[in-house]
Amino acid sequence: MKLSIVVPVYCGGATVPELVRRLGEELRARYDLEIVLVDDGSPDDSAEVCRGLAAAYPWVKVLCLSRNFSEHNAVMAGLNHATGDAVVIMDDDLQNPPSEVIKLVEALREGHDVVYSRYEKKQHNWFRNLGSVLNDRVANVMLKKPKGLYLCSFKAINRFVVDRVVTFDGPFPYIDGLVLRVTRRIGVVTVVHEERQVGRSGYTLRKLIALWVNMFTSFSILPLRFASLLGLIVAAVGMLLAVGFAIERARNPQLPVGWASIGVSMMVLAGVQLFALGMLGEYLGRMFLKVGGEPQFIVREALNVTPASELTAVEPTNVAPLHADSRSPLQRDSSHGDSVSNGSIHDVPADTDARDSVVRDSVAPSAVVAKGA
């Protein structure tokens, strides 16, 4: 089985060599391994370190993006160039031991489309843990994710899901949102989470807010519905207050007209209107950027990647007939069938459609140097 490891790299020059070495030692004997390192415009020597790894190991692909696009965009670049039957996404900080990759991949054999990791004890700092909890609560509402599922960056995805995730060409991807659009066949595996040995996390309040906004506007229209509901509530409260003021005025003609009620009413109404306009502007702005060709990512340099001229087109014979088994080769080869592992989320059958049953075989979208533009 071919296994791809996608690693978004940002200021990871000190940890990536050790990560690649350990991944090779742990996994090459078990799988046909490829590692896809995506340097997301790092300001340090990460790109040069990745180039050295590509020169030393032919099974290491390196993509150097033209600028910093953000973690999820970098992951999308890696997924577009990954050719494995299964793809594992992991960070470059060595907090996820390479040996734990095997647990995720083997769980895919139980019939899952994606397997998320769950930590017995997280070794992040308090701010990162708080942000993760808040992000999880927001995802419960916005993405309608299964209860009990923690959306972790360390996960394994089969070829079926990867092929559909990479069809998204918008400039603001959110990997977990794209995955949950495709499937509910989700497994969960408990893994070890180690302390960070080098550097510090780049997780900031600004990135957390950007992630929320991305989740709001790219994968849900709930904010617009909330704005409409809030407007109706404020309008209803305004009418009730108007009736109450009229009754009070009739009962007490000497009651002076108050500027406070007028000022408060105007501020509340103005606030609701500005909130609604802001949300509409965010949605329209993202549509404008997409239509205007805002790229999802741009690859400046690609090492150990198959050129476009050497890629073979998918033959029509690879299109499965209607109602055919749409599972990936990884799942069909499993002797466990579609059984659900302990601690996993129960499956929700996905639609099988002939158009969604194209098998890529060994064909990789590795010619993608810019997407969304």
Could you name the key traits of this structure?
373 residues, alpha/beta, Spore Coat Polysaccharide Biosynthesis Protein SpsA, Chain A, 2 domains, 9-stranded mixed sheet, 11 helices, 42% helix, elongated
Describe the structure.
- The protein is an alpha/beta fold.
- The chain has two domains: 2-219 and 295-371, Alpha-Beta Complex (Spore Coat Polysaccharide Biosynthesis Protein SpsA, Chain A), CATH 3.90.550; 222-291.
- Helices cover 42% and strands 14% of the residues.
- The chain contains eleven helices and nine strands.
- It has helices at residues 16-27, 46-56, 71-81, 101-108, 126-142, 159-165, 175-182, 205-219, 222-251, 259-291, 329-332, and strands at 2-9, 32-39, 60-65, 86-89, 114-119, 155-158, 186-191, 297-303, 370-371.
- It has a nine-stranded mixed β-sheet with strand order 7-5-6-4-1-2-3-8-9, sandwiched between helices.
- The longest helix has 33 residues, at 259-291.
Kindly summarize this structure in a few lines.
With 373 residues, this protein is α/β, with parallel strands linked by helices.
